[in-house]
Every structure is written in structure tokens, then in C-alpha cells.
Amino acid sequence: MDPYRVYQSSGFSVMYAVFDTLVTIAPDGRLGPGLADSWSSPDAKTLELKLHPGVTFQDGEPFDAAAVRFSLYRIADLDPATSTPYPVGDSRRLNSAFASNFASLASVEVVDPLTVRIHLSQPDSGLLGNLGTLQMVPPQYFAQVGNAGFALKPIGTGPFRFVEWVKDDHITLEANPDYWNSPRGTPLVKTVIFRPIPDVSTRISELATGGIQIMQDLPFDQATQVKASGDQAVYLSDAHSLAIWLTTDKGGNLAKNPGDQATAIAALANPAVRQALNMAIDRKTLVATIMDGYGEPMNSLWVTGDKGFDPSLPAIPFDPVKAKQILAQQGYPNGFAVNMDTCTCDDQSIYEAVAGMLANVGVQVTLKPAELAQFNDAWSKGDTNPMRAARLGFPVDPNTELYLWLYSKGYLSRYDNPQVDALITQQAGLPTDDYGPDRVAILRQIAVLAQADPPAIFLVGDGSLYGTVGKGLTWQPNVQGYIPVVNVSYTP
């Protein structure tokens, strides 16, 4: 329950209920005031924020510039005494996967209790968007309980307070009676209960019988059934994309991969092979059948709603005959065998269909499903198979995905393209903006390169599909993919 170490949308649902951010991200993705009423940039490497007065954490601790400084230093693994990074291996390092979002942070200056000045080592175009995802945490409470205690009983400034967590059963929150007049809205119900229900049929049954009012990850092929029962299927089109990320860096942590995967790793280091694999996928059929018409085919990194999406970029052709020819020309006339990690939190049917399409060109894929924690842990340690299927889309700023997945030194990256690295660095180094034309043009250039030298097998933009009760609920999904509970009302 530590907001800096929660990496999936179901966890974000709880975090955004308990915590607030300096910048608010509206349901459609627009940035606006949050705990910071306003901000300005005296120069390209400085961002000054004016904080909202009178805000307190749920234990009564005041929210102020010191809390902002503490939160930023904690996520970035900086020593607050020296503004320098903790050494690798230092027990004080949090090692959050989101630390790279704040790699440009040099120091944080407390000007006065309601004014904070962020100094950067270089301009950072993604800083504002990333501040919209960074929950503020209370330094005094944290000093008392430490990392472990904070993760068991989190305290924020948000609209709901933590009450109880029974692992694998439920998390209970209650409305914060002292919640400030946030632009996000107000808590309109007394209690919110989050329940992990892995089985889809059980979730749908609970929705139909009133046990829950909102369910996440409604399978596309179940939407008709839900609507027939009088409930609703709520689709947000620009929330996620689905891709199979590949080991392309000529081995990398080869010793950590099963020995029989050496041939696959060698094959995937070849851009022509990766192009062929992309040509083997019939994306339109995936959308029309498995996704029941929801979603869109991906043509590169970005889908509709992403800042770098370019509708004029040609689609990846579906041409299995040519794909087989390319594989034969590259030395794989009989294809090869490869293992693919998947998360059991995703619908496996689309991965099974993709495996069948790849088999048609000679590539035999063995799916290796794992629970979410195991899946994430293996990826972060490099203990993965050569293919890894993942849904993306919760970050507001594209730098999060670029530095995690594509940048050669990225936290999860197994891709190494110097041109892409240079462009990532270039667009990230633009001044803080709201996605000006220069940055969008660079993001589109990266998409062109990613078609020619694919880091992944691009599949579909699959959005988010929720099931909600048909009557009595006032609710709107958020582009980040979590379940918002603030400003939500329900009358049974």
C-alpha cells in the first residue's frame, strides 16, 4: 500500500482515493491545479509551485512545502541532507520503478511553507504530467513508522481514509470528513470497499446481484451479457495498449533465461525477424472477434489519445506469407520456439490467439502465465522469457513508458537503439510544457523508428471496459485506468 511501489491500475484505485497529487489529472487527461494552486517556470530548469493553504494529512499533520520536498526526495532516492543520490545498495533507497520519472531532479527548495521551488539538472518536458501521478506523503508520520509501517497503514490528504486491509479479501476506506476543497471534487459516499475478485464470472455475478457497483476489466466478450441484465458496460477508448515486449539486445541477461531459449533470443536480436513477427498478426481480427469490436489495431508505440499518436502513420501490414519468407531469408525457414510470459491478471484468450497466428509462420510460442507479483518481480530482475506480454497506458506522460521500456538503460528495457535513445533524451529535455508541437513531432519520429526496428509485437489499443450497475450510480472513468471514487454517488 505504499503509493510509490504500486504498479497496477487496481492498486492505483486505492492510492488515488487515499492520496492527492500536486497536479490534478482530469478524467480526460487534462492537467490542472491540485495541491498546487499554480506554478511557474522562472527558467527552463526551475519550477515554482504555490501550494493550497490549510490542507492537512488525515492524521492532522500539515501539508506544506516540507512535505513536497520529502515526497520528491523519497521517490527520487535522494538524500535530503545533501540532495545527492543514495548509493546503490543503500537500505534507504526505495528503488521505485517510477524513480526515472524524476531523474532530472537536482534539489527541492522550501521557499516558505506554501512555496516550493524544484531545481532540475536539465529541462524536463514531462515534469508536470509526472507531478500529476506523484502522491504526497506525510514526513512526520513516515518518520514514526518507516517504509514497512507506512505500507500497512497509509495516510494521505485524499478524500478517503484507510480503515482496514484484509489481504486477498477487501480494503475498506471511509470518507475524510476534513477533506479540503480539492478540484477533484468531494467524497459523496461514506464508505468504499475494494474487493479483489479474480474470477470473471464471480465479478459479473456480484455486479448482477448488487454485491458490487463497479467492476474493472470486464472481458469484451461479456459486455453483451452484462448489458442484457440491465447493467452497463462503460468503455474508455484511450486508456491502454497491449503489446508483446521482446528481448532485442543480443542476449543481455542470457544466463537468466532457460537454455533452450538461446535460439529465440538470437532471432529476436534481428530487426527483420521482429518485423516479420509483427506482419504475422491479424490485428483487425483480434479487435473484431476476441475484443467484440472494442479497441483498435496498433501501428506502432502509440494509440489514439497518446501524445505521440499519428493517424497518418501506415498500418503494419498483415502478410503471413511474406513474414514466412523473411524468416527463411534470415535463417529460420522452420521458425523457432519461444516462451512468453503473461500475467494472469489479463485475459489469456488474446495471447492464445496471437500464439496461433505466430504458429502459422513457424514460431511456436509457449505461454508462461504468472500471478501479477511474480510477473512484475521477474521482469524487474531480468528473470524473464524472451517475450513478455503487457498492458500499458496508465502513465499520463509518455516519458514513463519510454524510459521503462525503450531507453537502453531503462528499468525494464531489453531494447537498444541509439537513434531512439537520442530522441528520447531530446524530447525529455524540452522545457516543461503541455505537449507542444516540437515534442509531439519527436514522439512521432520515435514511432516511425519503432516500426522499422520494433521493440515489441504491437497488438491493439484495448482501452478499459468496466461493468457498472444500471441505476443509481453517478460515475466517470479516468484515462489513467484506475477506478475513481471521489465525486461518485450511489443510491441503491
What does this structure look like?
The chain is an alpha+beta fold. It has two domains: 3-160, Dipeptide-binding Protein, Domain 1 (Dipeptide-binding Protein, domain 1); 241-462, Dipeptide-binding Protein, Domain 3 (Dipeptide-binding Protein, domain 3), CATH 3.10.105. The chain is built from 15 helices and 22 strands. The chain has helices spanning 9-18, 65-76, 127-131, 139-152, 200-209, 223-228, 262-268, 271-279, 283-290, 320-329, 349-359, 372-381, 398-406, 418-428, 437-452; strands at 23-25, 31-33, 36-43, 46-51, 78-79, 84-85, 105-112, 115-120, 160-166, 170-175, 191-194, 214-215, 232-236, 241-246, 296-297, 336-343, 363-370, 387-392, 456-461, 464-468, 473-474, 489-490. Strands 15-19-14-18-16-17 form a six-stranded mixed beta sheet, sandwiched between helices. Strands 3-4-8-7 form a four-stranded antiparallel beta sheet, with helices on one face. Helix 8 (271-279) runs antiparallel to helix 10, helix 13 (398-406) runs antiparallel to helix 14 (418-428) and helix 14 runs antiparallel to helix 15 (437-452). The protein is globular and about 70 Å long. 45% of the residues are buried. The mean pLDDT is 90.
Summarize the helices and strands and which ones pair or pack.
Blueprint: H1 9-18, E1 23-25, E2 31-33, E3 36-43, E4 46-51, H2 65-76, E5 78-79, E6 84-85, E7 105-112, E8 115-120, H3 127-131, H4 139-152, E9 160-166, E10 170-175, E11 191-194, H5 200-209, E12 214-215, H6 223-228, E13 232-236, E14 241-246, H7 262-268, H8 271-279, H9 283-290, E15 296-297, H10 320-329, E16 336-343, H11 349-359, E17 363-370, H12 372-381, E18 387-392, H13 398-406, H14 418-428, H15 437-452, E19 456-461, E20 464-468, E21 473-474, E22 489-490
Parallel strand pairs: 16-17, 16-18
Antiparallel strand pairs: 1-2, 3-4, 4-8, 5-6, 7-8, 9-10, 10-11, 12-20, 13-20, 14-18, 14-19, 15-19, 21-22
Helix pairs in contact: 8-10, 13-14, 14-15
